TrEMBL record:
Residue ranges of domain Probable transposase IS891/IS1136/IS1341 in the record: 191-308
Protein's name in the database: RNA-guided endonuclease InsQ/TnpB family protein
Entries under Pfam families matching the protein: Cas12f1-like_TNB, OrfB_IS605
Organism: Paractinoplanes globisporus
UniProt keyword Ligase, yes or no: no
NCBIfam families in alphabetical order: guided_TnpB (NF040570)
């Protein structure tokens, strides 16, 4: 059971870090055995509720009822999985069932109760049931089984005393551990503490994930072009990999060969790497925004909620851009980092913010480029920053941030995703081919191609007499 937190304790937030595992073959098999046993617990719960539904009985959805059924099954029913790990699966099922019931009562009739089986289910252990010393993690198993000790790939980013749970899961083609910690809110000096009366507006976008307009006309632009390039290159690579293996794909109902399973595993690893890159870039962008707000003592962030555009059919290409945007994850990351820094976040409707002048509040045609200009008051500035100024004025309870007539404050430019391929100074992805040289240019010097199988070196001469180091060859351009 999760630890009951004292109501008198200082406010805190929970953070989760995902860490890979360094496993031997035997440890890997035991970890998969735990995940499969958790999947059996999930399947048994589904079957019990299916029988009850056919008989017209009440479903077994409460956590206490499910724990009693687990106790009746007896020890050793689910292999090496201990009681704590099995109860975490029951807790997951109970939460999913009651969440679906609440949404259906609210009118969302398309929501369904959990009825799908899963081969591998994540297993969670709470504080006091596991041991973590440095990178060595000891996971609890059933009584009478040898202890399971695994090694983490990196150090845990949280203090040892703040850990609350660890979760073993298989995602993106690899086994990993989710470490959840309870962290207190960041304390600031009295003179540098965030002021709730200082408001900044944030406009979310694809090219610029965050456009922030703060007090005094100061602004921040976070470029997301590296993230967009990563999405495009990943899509191109996926298409290129799929074409040659399409003919080897098993037919429906077939298991597939060992070669096909290796191909699918490689595809999952590449897909997981792409997701981690994008997720890390979003974290970097949100961290930049929160750091910028803390430096200027901004205590309230008013964010325009653009999730309404997801319901619009904007065509095949733009629908793909919206799907890759990950609006929900971006908002969640920003809210989590703001809560840790003690900054409040308000979500408001952003409708019309890009076509409203922030100075005179009159409607103007939405510009096709990145710059916005008002024909009524001669306001000029960046389109996303102008939308952020307009969003700031929609803060519940009023806002102290008032836009200037012209953006005369300091605009800070930052880039998200510096770790992505091609995000260096050259701004070119290393996976692309080198650029073509201009017409008439000799380009990079290369040796002349051989004519057939005959070498151009005279037979009487030693072709390697000019070699200076082992393995080195030199040539003279024509």
């Amino acid at each position: 059971m999760p630890r009951a937190r004292n109501a008198q304790a200082a406010p805190a937030v929970h953070r989760t870090a995902r860490i890979g595992l360094r496993l031997t073959c035997a440890q890997r098999q035991r970890c998969f055995g735990l995940l499969r046993s958790a999947g059996d617990v999930w399947a048994c719960t589904l079957e019990i509720n299916q029988w009850r539904r056919h008989r017209g009985d009440q479903p077994a959805a409460s956590y206490q009822t499910l724990c009693r059924l687990l106790a009746e099954s007896g020890p050793g029913t689910f292999g090496e999985l201990d009681t704590t790990g099995a109860r975490s699966v029951l807790r997951r099922y109970s939460d999913a069932w009651f969440s679906a019931a609440a949404r259906r009562r609210a009118g969302a009739v398309e929501v369904r109760f959990p009825r799908r089986r899963r081969a591998l289910m994540p297993v969670r252990w709470y504080h006091g049931t596991f041991t973590l010393i440095g990178r060595t993690l000891r996971l609890p198993v059933a009584r009478g089984r040898p202890p399971l000790v695994v090694r983490l790939k990196r150090e845990m980013p949280y203090p040892p005393g703040s850990m609350r749970s660890v979760t073993l899961l298989f995602t993106d083609g690899r086994l990993c551990i989710d470490v959840t910690a309870e962290l207190p809110l960041i304390t600031h000096p009295a003179a540098r503490a965030p002021d709730p009366q200082r408001v900044a507006g944030i406009d979310l976008g694809i090219i610029h994930p965050f456009a922030v307009a703060g007090p005094g006309g100061e602004a921040l632009l976070v470029s997301g072009r590296a993230i967009r390039a990563e999405h495009r290159l990943h899509l191109a690579d996926t298409k290129q990999r799929s074409r040659p293996v399409a003919a080897r794909a098993p037919r429906r109902g077939q298991r597939g060969s060992r070669r096909w399973r290796k191909t699918r595993r490689r595809a999952r690893l590449v897909e997981g790497r792409h997701k981690r890159r994008v997720r890390q870039a979003l974290h970097e962008a949100a961290k930049t925004v929160i750091g910028w707000a803390v430096e200027r003592r901004v205590g309230t962030l008013t964010v325009g909620d653009p999730r309404g555009v997801l319901n619009l059919n904007a065509g095949r290409r733009h629908n793909l851009r919206l799907r890759q945007w990950q609006i929900g994850r971006t908002l969640q990351i920003l809210q989590d980092k703001a809560a840790l820094a003690g900054i409040r976040v308000h979500l408001v409707d952003e409708r019309g913010s890009s076509s409203t002048c922030p100075a005179c509040r009159k409607r103007i045609p939405k510009p096709s480029g990145r710059n916005l200009s008002c024909r009524h008051c001669q306001f000029a500035g960046h389109r996303d920053l102008a939308a952020a100024f307009t969003i700031a004025t929609r803060t519940p309870g009023g806002a102290t941030t008032t836009p200037t007539r012209v953006l005369g404050g300091v605009v800070t430019h930052r880039r998200a995703g510096r770790h992505l391929p091609g995000a260096a100074t050259a701004r070119r992805d290393p996976r692309r081919r080198p650029p073509r040289t201009a017409a008439g240019s000799l380009g990079r010097r290369r040796p002349a191609p051989s004519q057939g199988s005959r070498s151009l070196t005279p037979v009487s001469g030693d072709p390697q007499h000019h070699r200076t180091n082992p393995g080195e060859r030199s040539w003279t351009p024509l």
